[in-house]
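To illustrate this point, we now present one chain and its tokenised fold:
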Amino acid sequence: MHDDEADSPALYTSGELRDRSELRDVVQIYAHGADRRKPDLVASMFTPEGRLVIHRDPGSTEPPAVRTGRAEIAKALTSLDRYLATTHLIANQLVAFEPGGDRANAETYCTAHHIYESCGVRRDRVMSIRYLDTFVRTDEGWRIETRTLHCDWVEDRPLTA
């Protein structure tokens, strides 16, 4: 450690670090539940009245799909069953806590792979996703109040193996 580092203030308090870690867990459990086809697990990461707002692919003129409540969110996740497999890789997460510390807003990057078969060829539909989340601290822990999914780009490619 350098001498000047010893005098510099901590970037986050231990409580803020714990909250950031818990928020990260919520997002990672969501991805795990999506990939392992556990729609009820995914839905449990939302508040009971939580909202999932899904914007279509870039350039689409369709309005976003909105699912409200855990039952609707779980049902929406079954749409992933059409894929042979999916992998949601969670990356950057930027969090801003609201005054009081019981609400937070975050932007999380995700690269999602969707494997399917077309004309006897396995393909990978890759999506660059940004989740814009509003979180609230509940008796169950941190939960998503609203998740808005934006897709920045899509690439469809054949799998070679």
